[in-house]
Request: fold
Amino acid sequence: MRVLSVCGVMVAVAVGVVGCGYSEDEWQAQLAKYNHLKADDDQKLKDAQDRIDQLTLELKNLGVEVSSTKASLAEQKKALAEYEARARQLELIKERFEKLKSKLDELTKLGLAVNVRHNRMVISLPGDVLFDSGRETLKQDGKDILAKVAGVVKADPQLLSRDYQVSGHTDNKPLQRGPFKDNWGLSLMRAREVLVFLVDPEKGGGLPVEHWSAGGFADTDPIASNDTDEGRQKNRRCELIVMPSVEEMLDLKAITQ
Reply:
């Protein structure tokens, strides 16, 4: 760091002043120069920290959790370049999330919820619109809305090239009948049904199969209380999760270390 190197220079200057008989004015001039450089570094550090705090707050408002650790003042001075790099990373991630969300905002016009959960962009599809109770066969209304979602994705090359996971979710009521045995089976088969429709080039959305996968979560990831009918209805859903790219995952890891 420049502050540390300047300290070394000043020690040398101090020795030179004593040994060579420099005047008090010359010494004070060197000291003022050192103090100016130190104040400049301190201000840069404060500006970098302020920028990080602001971007962290903005990302939190977008649903992205970013943790950080506070070092001692001496360590912070040594890490000024790292703080500035982190600020640039936060700015890039914020820009990517805002751009991605703006592309998906068209889906809100279809009555779908688009938000950020667990640092991932999520499109939530109401289970009762897609399926009858306890069934995994898509209803016509479900097919219609999935076809519209596929149309939005296909219309944008960046969205089309992203990786997605269809995740099936249920409420916590035990499954009483049917071939699925339990809510794990039902949630997985519903996710599979949505996936197959979205990648079907003839009867469905025709999305690229290599970018899609499916998973079943049963009642392990609720978004509302299972103590009310309204809450259980919200929990019965399928989600289209926009998977983070490798670059985004590395950025998040670097920021949270």
Notes: Residues 1-22 have pLDDT under 50 and may be disordered. Strands lie at 113-117, 120-126, 164-169, 212-216, 237-242. Residues 27 and 202 are 84 Å apart (CA to CA).
